[in-house]
């Protein structure tokens, strides 16, 4: 008599290992940024538990590959990154260090949230480092356009559905619900119930607003981000790093330059001198700076030009008020539109 | 397109993934290539003969005037879904002006083993302490610590072998490394090789064959990492090495070490600045010299012990700028016979580094040495180091 059926035991172990998350167990998600975490939580709801590597108060380009991040990833079912090489300095180290096979690049547990995003500033010619830290796949700061948050939500919902087919429909519904919240935040309460906002989003900056939404300009709290920013279309602004291209394009603001002489290169005195002249000539009213950037260069330029420095969260958790994606975008729109309203330039 | 042009295009596509007609639409990442060039110039109060003993690291600035410290070509990438490959080739011009080529490392690393396991095989730096596995361009000083030179020679301890790493399921980061490597070769100092051809620590050397596992270099390292809040991380490591030495059939060496790395960096940092990083290592070597009797030397079996360490603090003042200070001490047992690899030595160094970008740096360092093997007993050196980095270079381990 066979006391021990080795084959059956091995099969059992294989099945247990392959089964993935057991029924009732939450999918463990680790995202590189808090924006992805906020969206993944909105989509995954009660079926997921989400951790972010970066805190929202730090620059996701420059993160040390700390062993504690590898521990976070050890049991993850899904890793979500911004992509477009934003995390290239540290992603591989923490993925490899985690020893978690199911989230390596190319596996189902590895998701690049940039899929489906219309990329800005994709270089058309050859790129080299004399140009500074140019991202050859395009500008990676796409989460700062609220339309892209809707795309990210859809991308995450589809992958969650693949990993956890039992709740596929719920993920799709949550993504749609999140998108609707973004639509309402963007276009305000004038958005009719059941009205598809897709057409409104497709009216690219520079085009006229839909009359119903434009009329909200004096409607107080019910106004959406679109209406709040509408008076400033075409206004020129300066930013610290080229992180704001998606936000500027969405709201029709125009970049007059950056404090950095080239992407990722510290502001040089010569460059700042030229920038100050440009800003004076073009009467640039504000300098947009992410909350983790130094104050010295922005304050110097502001003092010479009369422009206002607007320090804003650049990710969810970037300040105490930016608790979720919509609150973060609210902060951005409110602080920038307020500064533009108050500016005497 | 002639043959040369076709070959150039094929090379361009293979190595960079760049297709001229299609811009950068195609970006295969078959291999990441990078080249780091590390150079220095400076002056020491010690003359040429003493300076090579004073700056004993093979990548240290080691002559008055200019030194090509390390030009390193690195290739790395995914081999297939299961393995990664990595190779580092070194080009150098030594103090005598001779060109040197070295295969520094070439190894494969598994990606998909279960249970937190990872295997590395090929030729690679031994996991001992913090500094030994690091490449010169990532050091915080222009030279390697005195204790590393004494224990592992100018190039650091490395060689062909296999290493298993296991990330334990403990609630903090705890990783165990177990390794087996050849104990011979010019980079196995303290074991079956020595900086001098026929003598080491005054003892004549004999040839030994590989007859059992005990004739290989065995290594173990236990690395722990703890987060002290969101802004501070501390790594604590314990390492040990055992292997044969060439003083005779009974000759064997054991080296033990402890290392510490603590880094504080606020969450709201500007491209990594500001920060404070404290790093220190202590090492102890028991070198069991076999009894020897010949025309050259008569000696009983004895254990020569050596120990030493360093402690350094790097302070990232503001974006681009780092100031540092390092204290080192090393000593050996027995009578002091003025051996530059064993006698009492202390060195204090301070430096200031400026990083124009992630891919370049300039560093000015002052060293003050006290060593008995010197005629004057002390020496100073002032070194200016400069570096460039081309291509896609992998991020550094924390």
Main features:
heterodimer, A: 345 residues, alpha/beta, Rossmann fold, 4-stranded parallel beta sheet, 41% helix, globular, B: 398 residues, mainly beta, Porin, 16-stranded antiparallel β-barrel, two-stranded antiparallel sheet, 3 helices, 20 strands, 7% helix, 52% strand
Description:
The complex is a heterodimer of chains A (345) and B (398). Chain A is of the alpha/beta class and 345 residues long. In chain A, 41% of the residues lie in helices and 10% in strands. Chain A is built from 13 helices and 8 strands. Chain A is globular, with a radius of gyration of 23 Å. With 398 residues, chain B is mostly beta strands. Chain B has a single domain (31-391), classed as Porin (Beta Barrel). Chain B has helices spanning 3-16, 48-54, 146-152; strands at 32-44, 65-78, 83-93, 99-110, 117-125, 158-167, 173-181, 199-200, 203-204, 217-227, 232-244, 252-264, 275-289, 292-293, 298-299, 302-318, 321-332, 345-357, 360-371, 378-391. Chains A and B meet through helix 3 and helix 4 of A and loops of B.
SSE order of chain B? HEHEEEEHEEEEEEEEEEEEEEE
Query: Which architecture name of chain B does CATH use?
Result: Beta Barrel
Work out the largest interface and the residue count of each chain. A-B, 45 and 44 residues
CATH superfamily of the domain at 207-342 in chain A: Nitrogenase molybdenum iron protein domain
**What spatial form of chain B do the alpha-carbon principal axes imply?**
globular
Structural class of chain B: mainly beta
Strand content of chain B: over 45%
- Percent helix of chain A: 40-55%
Strands of the biggest beta sheet of chain B: in what spatial order?
A: 1-2-3-4-5-6-7-10-11-12-13-16-17-18-19-20
Architecture of the domain at 207-342 in chain A in CATH? Answer: 3-Layer(aba) Sandwich
Q: What is the strand and helix layout of this fold?
A:
The complex is a heterodimer of chains A (345) and B (398).
Chain A: H1 6-18, E1 27-31, H2 34-44, E2 48-52, H3 67-74, E3 78-81, H4 91-98, E4 110-112, H5 146-163, H6 168-187, H7 198-202, H8 211-214, H9 225-229, E5 236-239, H10 245-251, E6 254-258, H11 269-282, E7 286-290, H12 296-305, E8 308-312, H13 325-342
Parallel strand pairs in A: 1-2, 1-3, 3-4, 5-6, 5-7, 7-8
Chain B: H1 3-16, E1 32-44, H2 48-54, E2 65-78, E3 83-93, E4 99-110, E5 117-125, H3 146-152, E6 158-167, E7 173-181, E8 199-200, E9 203-204, E10 217-227, E11 232-244, E12 252-264, E13 275-289, E14 292-293, E15 298-299, E16 302-318, E17 321-332, E18 345-357, E19 360-371, E20 378-391
Antiparallel strand pairs in B: 1-2, 1-20, 2-3, 3-4, 4-5, 5-6, 6-7, 7-10, 8-9, 10-11, 11-12, 12-13, 13-16, 14-15, 16-17, 17-18, 18-19, 19-20
């Amino acid at each position: 008599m066979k006391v021990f059926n080795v084959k059956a035991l091995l099969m059992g172990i294989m099945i247990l290992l392959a089964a993935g998350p057991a029924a009732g167990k939450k999918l463990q998600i680790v995202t590189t940024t808090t924006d992805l975490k906020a969206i993944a939580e909105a989509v995954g709801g009660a079926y997921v538990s989400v951790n972010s590597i970066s805190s929202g108060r730090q620059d996701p380009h420059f993160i040390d590959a700390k062993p504690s991040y590898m521990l976070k990833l050890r049991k993850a079912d899904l890793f979500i990154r911004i992509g477009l090489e934003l995390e290239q300095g540290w992603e591989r180290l923490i993925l490899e260090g985690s020893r978690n096979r199911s989230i390596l690049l190319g596996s189902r547990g590895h998701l690049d949230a940039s899929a489906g995003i219309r990329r800005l500033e994709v270089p058309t010619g050859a790129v080299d480092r004399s140009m500074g830290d140019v991202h050859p796949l395009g500008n990676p700061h796409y989460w700062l356009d609220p339309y892209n948050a809707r795309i990210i939500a859809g991308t995450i919902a589809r992958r969650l559905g693949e990993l956890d087919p039992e709740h596929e429909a719920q993920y799709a519904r949550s993504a749609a619900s999140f998108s609707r919240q973004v639509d309402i935040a963007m276009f305000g309460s004038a958005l009719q119930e059941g009205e598809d906002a897709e057409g409104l989003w497709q009216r690219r900056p520079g085009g006229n607003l839909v009359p119903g939404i434009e009329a909200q300009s004096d409607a107080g709290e019910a106004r959406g981000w679109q209406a709040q920013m509408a008076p400033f279309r075409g206004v020129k602004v300066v930013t610290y790093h080229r992180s704001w291209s998606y936000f500027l394009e969405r709201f029709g603001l125009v970049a007059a330059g950056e404090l950095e002489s080239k992407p990722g290169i510290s502001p040089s005195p010569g460059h700042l001198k030229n920038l100050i002249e440009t800003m004076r000539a073009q009467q640039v009213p504000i300098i947009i700076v992410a909350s983790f950037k130094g104050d010295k260069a922005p304050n110097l330029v502001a003092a010479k030009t009369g422009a206002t420095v607007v320090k804003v969260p650049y990710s969810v958790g970037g300040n105490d008020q930016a608790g979720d994606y919509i609150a973060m975008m609210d902060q951005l729109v409110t602080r920038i539109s307020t500064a533009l309203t108050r500016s005497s330039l | 397109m002639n043959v040369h042009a076709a070959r150039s295009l094929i090379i361009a596509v293979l190595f960079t993934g760049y297709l001229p007609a299609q811009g950068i639409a195609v970006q295969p990442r078959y291999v990441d290539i990078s080249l780091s060039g590390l150079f220095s110039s400076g002056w020491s109060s010690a003359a040429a003969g003493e300076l090579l003993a004073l700056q004993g690291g093979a990548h240290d600035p080691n002559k008055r005037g200019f030194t090509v410290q390390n030009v390193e070509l690195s290739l790395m990438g995914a081999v297939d879904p299961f393995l990664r490959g990595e190779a580092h080739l070194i080009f150098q011009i030594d103090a005598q002006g001779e060109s040197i080529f070295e295969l520094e490392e070439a190894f494969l690393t598994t990606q998909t083993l279960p249970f937190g396991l990872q295997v590395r095989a090929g030729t690679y730096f031994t996991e001992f302490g913090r500094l030994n596995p690091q490449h010169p361009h990532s050091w915080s000083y222009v030279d390697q610590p005195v204790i590393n030179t004494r224990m592992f020679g100018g190039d650091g301890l490395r060689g062909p072998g296999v290493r298993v790493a296991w990330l334990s399921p403990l609630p903090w980061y705890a990783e165990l490394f177990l390794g087996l490597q050849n104990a011979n070769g010019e980079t196995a100092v303290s074991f079956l090789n020595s900086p001098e051809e026929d003598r080491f620590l005054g003892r004549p050397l004999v040839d030994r064959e590989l007859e059992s596992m005990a004739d290989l270099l065995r290594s173990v390292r236990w690395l722990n990492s703890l987060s002290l809040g969101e802004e501070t991380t501390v790594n604590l490591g314990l390492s040990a090495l055992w292997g044969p030495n060439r003083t005779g059939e009974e000759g064997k060496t054991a080296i033990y070490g402890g290392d510490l790395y603590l880094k504080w960096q606020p969450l709201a940092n500007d491209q990594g600045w500001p920060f404070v990083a404290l790093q220190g290592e202590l090492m102890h070597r028991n070198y069991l010299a076999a009894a020897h009797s010949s025309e050259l030397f008569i000696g009983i079996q004895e254990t020569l012990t050596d120990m030493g360490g360093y402690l350094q603090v790097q302070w990232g003042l503001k974006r681009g700028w780092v100031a540092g200070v390092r204290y080192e001490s090393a000593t050996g047992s027995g009578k002091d016979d003025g051996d530059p690899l064993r006698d009492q030595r202390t060195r204090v160094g301070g430096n200031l580094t400026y990083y124009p970008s992630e891919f370049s740096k300039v560093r000015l360092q002052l060293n003050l040495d006290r060593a008995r093997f010197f005629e004057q007993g002390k020496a100073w050196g002032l070194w200016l180091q400069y570096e460039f980095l081309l291509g896609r270079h992998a991020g550094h381990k924390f």
